[in-house]
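Example record

Each entry pairs one chain with its bound ligand, S-adenosylmethionine.
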Amino acid sequence: MYQFTYRFERRDETKNFTASQMMEQVRSMVPEKFQNVSLFTISEDVTLLVSKKGKPTLMCKAVKEQREQDLSHDHEKQRLIDPTKPWWFLLGLTSRDGKVLADMQHKFKQICKYVEIVDGVMRQTKFDNEIHIADMGAGKGYLTFALYEYLTTHYDKKIVMEGVEIRPELVVKINDIIEKCKDTRQCVSTIHFVQNSIEEYKPSNLDVLIALHACDTATDDAILY
Ligand SMILES: C[S@@+](CC[C@H](N)C(=O)[O-])C[C@H]1O[C@@H](n2cnc3c(N)ncnc32)[C@H](O)[C@@H]1O
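Structure tokens for the complex follow.
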């Protein structure tokens, strides 16, 4: 992408353009708005001058000193969740080689954001060496896995995660995925799904309760819990 910064008296406005959009922008501005355009590259400096009569002159000058290419904008964004972990493929969020599927991008962003929020709250809380977490109305388990993955990677504590879901077919499916992940030698020994309603779920230990988009009265039940 090409980044344009438009400078106004009291603010700057930044827009990103693809190569063809960028050319369109330049064409719409030169020479009507700008008669002098400079392009600096690592090997040459190019200047376009348009005279008052509209005659263009292009001047190219090779760069003498060595210029380094600035790749700082190309850095991969640090993600809280690693999409190459096997559960993401098995849960249907990524392709086999760990690329987030186009129609799952929104869900992936959503769970990353949720993990960030939960982490912010948990960092302000003191826990024992084991943290017991229940995800109420866990559904397909995206958030359950996301938080489990994050906490087991970033917290120096034993994380025990239970997804509570009323639909038995989902619980069987996800526990099956957990079993499959055990073969990949990934850390999934303390995550488990139970078929139960939020109201009737009675864990022996509970430190953190999460519930995202729990439908019907499930959000209320989770808050009431
Ligand atoms: C909209 S889904 C959300 C799934 C997941 N939390 C997410 O955000 O991706 C809500 C889930 O809560 C489950 N659910 C609804 N009421 C429940 C209850 N009383 N007890 C347990 N699960 C419930 C539904 O079966 C459904 O899978």
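The first strand starts at residue 2 and ends at 7.
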